[in-house]
Amino acid sequence: MNTREDLPGIVGNGVYFVRWTLISLLMGTVCGLVGTAFGFGVAYSQQFFRENPFMLFLMPVSGILIVLVHKALDQVGNKGTNLILESISSTEQIRFSTLPCIFISTILSHLTGASAGKEGAALQIGGCIGNTLGGLFHMDERDKKVAIMSGMSGCFGAIFGTPLAASMFGMEVISVGVAYYAALVPCVFSAFIGSFISSRLGLHGEAFTILHVPEFSLKPAALIVLLALLGAFVSVCFCILLHEVQKLYKAKLQNVYARILTASALFIGLSLVFGREYCGAGFNLVEAAMEGNVPYEAFLLKMLFTAVALGGGFKGGEIVPTLAVGASMGAAFGNLLGFEPSLCAACGMLALFAGVTNCPVATIFMGFELFGFEGMKYFALAVSVSFALSGYYGLYSSQKFTYSKTRTEFINRKAH
Amino acid sequence: MNTREDLPGIVGNGVYFVRWTLISLLMGTVCGLVGTAFGFGVAYSQQFFRENPFMLFLMPVSGILIVLVHKALDQVGNKGTNLILESISSTEQIRFSTLPCIFISTILSHLTGASAGKEGAALQIGGCIGNTLGGLFHMDERDKKVAIMSGMSGCFGAIFGTPLAASMFGMEVISVGVAYYAALVPCVFSAFIGSFISSRLGLHGEAFTILHVPEFSLKPAALIVLLALLGAFVSVCFCILLHEVQKLYKAKLQNVYARILTASALFIGLSLVFGREYCGAGFNLVEAAMEGNVPYEAFLLKMLFTAVALGGGFKGGEIVPTLAVGASMGAAFGNLLGFEPSLCAACGMLALFAGVTNCPVATIFMGFELFGFEGMKYFALAVSVSFALSGYYGLYSSQKFTYSKTRTEFINRKAH
């Protein structure tokens, strides 16, 4: 070891650190402000929808508006979160118009109760901000990728109030098995600043209480593993459902207006039949599930509502609906077996999130941030088992599996 | 997406899961039992040393015995934890005799107060168990690597009582930037079972209390970042010191007996001059640091004591001494600036651990398991900054840096 020849390396690290600290401060601030505006926008739209039941029937109008916004901003065929992932793993470019497009479309979707999230949208908004700042600072392609990850983490942290999960998610989601640690400081700084700003501005993150966490022993551990097996299976089904419904819409209806109008009609019909609990992002279901109060079929219905809305062109992302499906599934499992529905709701939620995003570390972090540290051992079991068994399915078809889930080998394949 | 063609994949995952669940149950049980025996062995040796001050002067005897054990088991020149890392990243083979060798040598080291850990030894013992079970089950090379990681996690979890950190450490330490997720279930299961068994048998993990965690805001965050900068610098210094002292011993003294006798003489001399606080693994220093009660120079002295003992041939590993150095450094920093010495001790400890092991996720998990979740934001800052700035230095020269710490690029170099 020659320590002298490495001095430029250490100086280089210092330069890297100062540079990215400054950039992340700016990134976190911009993402925090934009994310807060977006978060409040979504929250008000959701509230407006709840207070004005007729809004559901305006879904065709919001649908048409969403298409018009996409046409006006030349974003028809926008690949959503996949575009952001590809901008990091390949040479795909993000255009700034993605930001207003997803911002407005998500709010329109929530105004009329579509079953859609907001975190996927936040990842896209953050990615755009990162890309734009990268351009402003004349970054080369590699640094711009770090900036995009930092932006994703910043906005995710601002909107969801889980900065640690947000930091890790941006690095972990692109290539399964590879952690882009070059983005560690930029992601951590931007997520914490983003979340700090949004909470100071009054946008509070989610947090739930597990009613009772039993002492760790063989029986509850085995039951949680069983739940995670189910979670892996449901994850795969949910991914297939989302992708197949979208394909079906595209195959049967070439015209984007026809597609979103059909989706609106179907969604309104479903809501009239099954009720409005399945409209919106789904935190209502998570809350009910944490108290063990959801019907057995809730997770299936939430999957269906989400596939119908997102597949037809409504916007916002799949993350919160995924959490709602998982929590409902977990509570149903717990109620069925008479075993801790509240803990099962939490573990089901994490199992499903790990299964569809293939990000086990971010999911475990999210578990601690949403539910506290007490259930740690159960969370770790639920996440690792569901991750291992959900195969190469995922929400994002642009996600890469760089390493095998079952063998220590390089595979470099894409998600289903 | 053709779901039918993927059925063998899902069935394959099921077979993988059942197979590895059974193997990990066995692995966790064996590692839990052996780890507990080892843990109690070390604990009794440490107690015996404390109660019998003359033991310090028997260091030359324990030194000679260590060399004899190595000769008898044909383990002279054993590369320690590096051997285990190489057995995973290359075709290097582990022999079973490593297990009794490191088991006995570590206990002999602790009986006479050498400044050495026990977790490095646990990693080696666990790796041997994994390798042996892999052989028993006729595993191919790739599966044997997973078995070795699972064994490492199992023993680490049993001895340290931090199963989540233990699970991740085994997967994260080999190649920085690559998470060997194929080992996720085998590592999680074996670490949790190992830790469950050891705690049932009365071997309790470590846990510390941070006296006060201030509300997260700019000033404390900036101070923790400053501490992490210092932590990165001390990490690099500690790695260089350990490696250079070992080289110096080897260069000046060809004979292994002469080397360990010299180390004993130096160590006894240092203990007579500076006191016995720096003998042993160092949890006494961590405890004192958590209350802000360590001298400013403690971290330097602990570095020196450890380099003198380990470089000369005493055994046990570097992990607990690293934690002691980090906690003492953190408390000194806090006392100097009049800012939360207890929180600084915790963050300093994590910063140093992240800096020397290059395992940020395992380090953050360890933070939660040792100190609880309240200080999460500070832990994340300390770990990410120290990781980013500690360069390509590390405790283990066989550790690979697969991806750059500062650029999104493949570099595939070894640690200094």
UniProtKB/TrEMBL annotation, chains A, B:
Presence of keyword Transmembrane helix: yes
Membrane topology label: Multi-pass membrane protein
Keywords from the named record: Membrane, Transmembrane, Transmembrane helix
SUPFAM superfamilies: Clc chloride channel (SSF81340)
Transmembrane segments: 20-42, 54-73, 146-166, 178-201, 221-244, 256-274, 319-337, 343-366, 378-396
Coiled coil regions, renumbered to chain: none
InterPro entries cross-referenced by the UniProt entry: Cl-channel_core (IPR014743), ClC (IPR001807), ClC-type_chloride_channel (IPR050368)
Main location: membrane
Subcellular location: Membrane
Presence of the UniProt keyword Plastid in the record: no
PANTHER family: CHLORIDE CHANNEL PROTEIN CLC-E, CHLORIDE TRANSPORTER
Record's protein name: Chloride channel protein
